[in-house]
Amino acid sequence: MSWISRFLGTQRIPGEALTARQEQLVAGWRQLPDVDLRRSHYRCRYVVIDVEATGGDPDSAQPRAIAALALVDGQIAFRDAWQLVLEEPV
Fold it and tell me: What is the pLDDT of residue 60?
């Protein structure tokens, strides 16, 4: 899925660009301190991401919906959840 490469930063897609605000947010995220790998995974925060896409071909599929839910200290953080249903595929 070529659209996900924008989030991974491994490939730039011609004609597609982030807004200045999006670039700023990504730069801030990249400046965060490294994770303490000695910390028990049970005491960490995880974000589970679910993406629904059109069709079965990953090369041509387009995103239809995206959702995220946080797990904090082993508990689902329902207040830290997000969902976006796209009207038209991106």
Answer: 83
How far apart CA 15 and CA 19 sit, in angstroms, is 13
| The predicted structure's pLDDT at residue 40 | 87
Please indicate, yes or no, whether the overall pTM of this predicted structure exceeds 0.70: no
Nearest Cα to 7, choosing from 52, 48, 20, 23? 23
Domain span at 9? 1-32
Going by C-alpha positions, the residue among 83, 84, 90, 82 that lies closest to residue 54 is 90
Q: Taking 70 as the threshold, does the pLDDT of residue 18 lie above it?
A: yes
Q: Are residues 53 and 83 in the same domain?
A: yes
48 and 89 belong to one structural domain: yes
Let me know: does 67 contact 59? Beta carbons within 8 Å. no
